[in-house]
Amino acid sequence: MTLHVADLHAYYGKSHILHGVTLHVGEGEIVSLLGRNGVGRSTTCKAIMGLVAPAGTVLWRGKNIAGLRPNLIARQGIGYVPEDRQVFPMLTVRQNLALGLKRAGQLGRWSFDDVFALFPNLAARQDNPAGVLSGGEQQMLTMCRTLMGDPDLILIDEPTEGLAPRLVEQVGVLLAEIARRGVSILLVEQKLTIALRISQRLYVMGHGRIVFEGTPAELEAGAAIRREWLEV
Amino acid sequence: MQLLTDTLLSGLVYGMLLFMLASGLTLIFSMMGVLNFAHASIYMLGAYFAFTISHYIGFWAALVLAPLACGLIGAAIEVWGLRRCHANGHIAELLFTFGLVFIFQRAVMMVWGTLAVPYQVPASLNFPLFQLYGQNFPAYRAFMLLVTALMLLSIWLLLKKTRIGLIIQAALTHPDMVSALGHDVPRVFTIVFAGGCLLAGLAGVIGGNYFSTDSGMADAMGPIVFVVVVFGGLGSLAGCFVASIFMGMVQTAAVMVNGSIASLFAPFGIALGGDSLLGEILTIPLARVSPLLPYVLMVLILFFRPRGLMGARDA
């Protein structure tokens, strides 16, 4: 088991956001984290990544990484793609990708050519400032930027939010390609369709806790769970 | 013509000096959110260090050693001071740098006394370089322009052509993301803080003997530098540069121009003035209001364009 999170708590100031989240992601596995807005899915990612202070255990390959600084966690092989994209607007597409590398000339599973072959749009605009890209292009750029750092596990927060159906398909293609190269994925999603199609296992969160764990088939069978925790 | 070129050149020298201070301050401010009140104190320290070092070893050694010492002080402030205060929020950091201002000022008074020290332009640069409209152009002024131009070039190369420069630029907008990509952002903060202090020190070395080296020089320079940072826009070095040169020109020009607001209207046959309060304000010589101009401009820009000239976000 690569990532094992146990009894994870997190706070924003005085408000208690995560109430003991327990989950795991195996080697090469795609796991989705579902739930309505505000139940703590993004905070779970940030706590694993060290961007909000975690209390509890985050075991990564058997070592507790809870409380380490984000850059050290990244260097252990965990990548993070934030919900709000956060491209570096004044830097070019190519410079954004270059910053994904942990040091200049790093060789990993992903190269500039891979990225540009997958997304010809990014290739055509590689010398443009990232700030002028469309929302969809920025989303692809953020994901690819993190991939350039060659993570073994990638935490992706709502990659399809606000994207047109055609672009959602592209995200799906990229996720499949990431998995094909042996990278584990923890995917935070709201769209059930994508999550059910590509995940091996799913978690549903409610009120800062895990309220369901199972396979896509089990979630499809569990209408009560869906009604209580997912449907709006 | 002579007045104009002289004004432009003095304005340029002063503006470049402002930029040396303001560039560091704006980078620190936009990356770390820390309004470093003590930035101008480092400028003062640079001048005093240069005075003492040139007394014993010479000006050229001071030109190298004094900025380095300021850079080291900057690194120490960041690592042992600011980082500790950071946990308690921006107000704590602000008050911390505010305290440093007084500590540095008192320390300077204790070591070097309250009067101006005789920090002179070095003899090797104290000659007229050429004649301009019958007036001598001092070699030291050309030297200042050269040093500031070299500094501008090296900042540009560092930011645009190196990897650490890329990381600094990225951290201006999204420091957390940069950190999540595996870069050591606190270390980058230290480098930027130390670099900013090094530039402030360098400005002190070349400015202290051109103007005057006394314990009030930080107070005189500090507010103007803040105005430049706000005016140019947070996070924008280009804006900071334009604002520095502009402020340099405005202040120098206002001092050198004979006349008042009322005299601007005189050629049109409009006579302003009289005994009313407004009349008196309009007839005050511009030279006397020149110290006020930068602040008036800052207030105006905060009113009408809070991002500053080229800022990436609101002040």
Concise summary:
With 232 residues, chain A is of the alpha/beta class. Helix content of chain A is 37%, strand content 26%. Chain A has one domain: P-loop containing nucleotide triphosphate hydrolases (Rossmann fold, 3-Layer(aba) Sandwich), CATH 3.40.50.
Describe the protein in words.
The complex is a heterodimer of chains A (232) and B (315). Chain A is 37% helix and 26% strand. Chain A has helices spanning 41-49, 70-75, 93-100, 112-118, 120-124, 135-148, 165-180, 192-198, 216-221, 223-230; strands at 3-12, 15-25, 30-34, 54-60, 63-64, 78-81, 153-157, 184-188, 201-206, 209-214. In chain A, the strands form 2 sheets. In chain A, strands 6-7-8-3-9-10 form a 6-stranded mixed sheet, sandwiched between helices. Chain B has a domain at 2-218. Chain B has helices spanning 2-32, 39-56, 59-86, 90-112, 139-161, 163-173, 175-180, 185-208, 217-232, 237-256, 261-265, 277-283, 286-289, 293-304; strands spanning 128-132, 135-138. In chain B, strands 1-2 form a two-stranded antiparallel sheet. The longest helix of chain B is centred in the first third of the chain and has 31 residues, at 2-32. The two termini of chain B are 39 Å apart. Classes of the chains: A alpha/beta (232), B mainly alpha (315). Chains A and B meet through helix 2 and helix 3 of A and helix 6 and helix 7 of B.
- What's the total helix number of chain A? 10
| CATH class term of chain A | Alpha Beta
- What is CATH's topology name of chain A? Rossmann fold
Total count of domains of chain A: 1
Helix content of chain A: 25-40%
Low-confidence parts of chain A: none
Strand content of chain B: under 5%
Tag the structure with descriptive keywords.
A: 4-stranded antiparallel beta sheet, B: 315 residues, mainly alpha, two-stranded antiparallel sheet, 14 helices
Write the layout of secondary structure elements.
The complex is a heterodimer of chains A (232) and B (315).
Chain A: E1 3-12, E2 15-25, E3 30-34, H1 41-49, E4 54-60, E5 63-64, H2 70-75, E6 78-81, H3 93-100, H4 112-118, H5 120-124, H6 135-148, E7 153-157, H7 165-180, E8 184-188, H8 192-198, E9 201-206, E10 209-214, H9 216-221, H10 223-230
Parallel strand pairs in A: 3-8, 3-9, 6-7, 7-8
Antiparallel strand pairs in A: 1-2, 1-4, 4-5, 9-10
Helix pairs in contact in A: 3-6
Chain B: H1 2-32, H2 39-56, H3 59-86, H4 90-112, E1 128-132, E2 135-138, H5 139-161, H6 163-173, H7 175-180, H8 185-208, H9 217-232, H10 237-256, H11 261-265, H12 277-283, H13 286-289, H14 293-304
Antiparallel strand pairs in B: 1-2
